[in-house]
Known about the structure:
By secondary structure, the chain is an alpha/beta fold. It has 12 helices and 12 strands. The strands form 2 sheets. Strands 6-7-8-3-9-10-12-11 form an 8-stranded mixed sheet, with helices on both faces. The chain has a 4-stranded antiparallel sheet with strand order 2-1-4-5, with helices on one face.
Amino acid sequence: MAADYNAEPLLKVDGLKQYFRVSSKYTVHAVEGVSFQIFPGETYGLVGESGSGKSTIGRSVIRLYDPTDGRIRFNGMDISQKMSKKDTSNLRSQMQMIFQDPMASLNPRKKVEDIIGEGLDIHHSCKTRAERSEKVRAILKKVGLAPEHATRYPHQFSGGQRQRVGIARALIMNPKLIIADECISALDVSIQAQVVNLMKDIQQETGMAYLFIAHDLSMVKYISDRIGVLHLGHLLETGTTEEIFENPIHPYTKSLLSAIPSPNPVVEKNRIAEVYDYKTSGLDYSRGTDHLISGTHYVKCTDEELQRFMK
């Protein structure tokens, strides 16, 4: 199922800020005024270096953190402020998260059947134990695991299998949006391809949307419909996958793309990675505004900076 860009955005984030107070004199500004939207059936890739605020955005969107400022609308609900018990229940069932470390995110004392079925228990989605067991085994089969795996513990699986358990736990609630927080970075390359292909197949089947958080640009290019480039808590550039890879505007985006190794040894030998240092770049992210380049391609910068980028 393709993304429906004529529909209302499933998720709309406007001016999201997330600050963490460390002491009476110091506050970490993790996310600064980030805005983006995700449409039904779409995969939005969020890329950036470690510490840029990618995971913080995902956790703020799903309300593991209370946003400092900004507005978040999901499926017609305003989820940026204090929510009612009903809205919280709807959010928890319609939005799910796949975490980066499949071992740390699974309870080692619970069997896989209980880990996956916990959401069903909380939301009272099954009337009988037999119905719950049937749903768990069906979702295990969908993610490429055997029904008998339901009686095992997380430590009895490989890394790729554990991540499939995490995906199954998210899928069993039949959510409209899944936040995948670097869900493949801890896996071997061959297993990464299997997991990403699995996610794409499930998206085709169910029409759910993904917020795909990663720093592997080649994988983001493969799975994403649109991409947002994040640096120091600021969303610097966003557009379709083709726009970002074929016509990058911001120098930070260019530096990220230039660092991608090429499988062609001749091209790789002559590849020059561009160096970008914010401190010496002369740019001021706090003064930037969104400039529409073409279609859905936006770059956050001042008018003077845009003229420099376009030369």
